Amino acid sequence: QVQLVESGGGLVQPGGSLRLSCAASGNVFSDYSLHWYRQPPGKQREWVATITSGGGTNYADSVKGRFTISRDNGKNTAYLQMNNLKPEDTAVYYCKLIGYWGQGTHVTVSS
Questions:
Q1: Is 1 exposed, middle or buried (0-12, 13-18, 19+ CB in 10 A)?
Q2: Does residue 96 carry a pLDDT above 90?
Q3: What does DSSP say about strands 34-39 and 91-97: parallel, antiparallel, or unpaired?
Q4: CA gap 59, 47 in Å, rounded
Q5: How many whole angstroms separate alpha carbon 10 and alpha carbon 18?
């Protein structure tokens, strides 16, 4: 059993930054890829970024160059640094490890 807890969401103005965290329980965190997804209001959940167990990264085109995914295996925690935020980044952000999902953290980008 793995539990994931996201944090760090909030209200930010366009052009601002936020850093999301995803803390995992258990002892399998370092063995698997960690994924960030988001679900904008009224839309389907979409993939945002992935970091592999070895640290390789991949991003959706919509966030490439603005978001950075990272992980600290010693802390069982992954991060999503989000810069130059846009109103279209408004969503509930979720992390996923294996088949487990967190509860999500809300990000609102608005002036």
A1: exposed
A2: yes
A3: antiparallel
A4: 8
A5: 8
